[in-house]
Amino acid sequence: ESRVEEIAQPRLDVLVSRSFVPGSEVEVDLSWRNLERTSLDLYPLDLVRDLIPDDGEPWEQISLAGREAERSRELALEVGQRHAPGHRRLWLEPPPPPGAWLLVARSGDLEARALLLVTDLVAVTRAAPERTLVWVVSAPDGAPVAGAEVRRWQRPSRRASWRSSAGSSDRDGLVELAGGGGGESCASSSL
Fold first, then answer.
1. Considering only 27-36, 83-92, 153-162, 167-176, which range has the smallest mean pLDDT?
2. Which residues pair with 153 in a beta bridge?
3. Which residues contact 184 (CB under 8 A, 6 or more apart)?
4. Of 73, 75, 76, 151, which residue is 20 to 30 A from 111 by alpha carbon distance?
5. How many angstroms separate the CA atoms of 27 and 31, rounded?
6. Reduced to 3 states, what is the DSSP secondary structure of residue 50?
7. Phi and psi dihedrals of 2, rounded to 5?
8. Cβ contacts of residue 55 below 8 Å, gap of 6+?
């Protein structure tokens, strides 16, 4: 009975499978069941400011109150047999400029989100017991990037609270942050 209920319910998912270099084609996957239309909205993000880890995906927690989508698109969804799942690969035209983006698909009360990164930056981290070293470089040539804002979130266990430390990369692309290895962590950077 639960499988029948699951098949009969509307479902909406959006997936971004990788990050993209500036100027490349940006593709996303949309899947659904029992829906005829959806909207896609693209919101700019500042990961250093907006990303706050939680037990779920961090971008699910980002508030969109007071934000306007930079792009919006309405889509009619192909409806095959009743209750059959649908899938469509989309290319965002024109490709978004460099940055972090929140892609939001909506249909009625349903909402699905995915993080979209368009960047040529790479952040390499190395954690010691009391500190973490982050090296920010340009992906095409490996050159150090000065002035990148970096934030690292860490918690020693699932029951502990998240703590953050932040800094800016120096002329060698390096920034040293408080807190080291162990537990869970995530880092973000932006220019």
1. 153-162
2. 164, 186
3. 53, 154, 155, 158
4. 151
5. 13
6. helix
7. -65, -35
8. 158
pLDDT at 158 over 70: yes
**How far is 188 from 172, CA to CA, in rounded Å?**
18
What's this model's pTM, rounded to 2 decimal places?
A: 0.81
Q: Nearest CA to 155 among 55, 51, 56, 50?
A: 55
In angstroms, the CA 129 to CA 179 distance is: 7
- Can you tell me the distance from the alpha carbon of 82 to that of 18, in angstroms, rounded to the nearest whole number? 32
Give 181's contacts (C-beta < 8 A, 6+ positions apart): 127, 128, 129, 132
Q: Let me know: does 62 contact 49? Beta carbons within 8 Å.
A: no
pLDDT category of residue 146 using cuts at 50, 70 and 90: very high
Give the 3-state secondary structure percentages of the chain, helix then strand then coil, rounded to 5.
Answer: 10, 50, 40
**CA distances in angstroms from 128 to 137, 148, 162, 180, listed in the order given:** 20, 21, 18, 5
Residues in the chain: 191
CA 60 to chain centre: 9
Mean pLDDT of 73-93: 88
Q: Which residues pair with 127 in a beta bridge?
A: 132
What value does the mean pLDDT of the chain take?
87
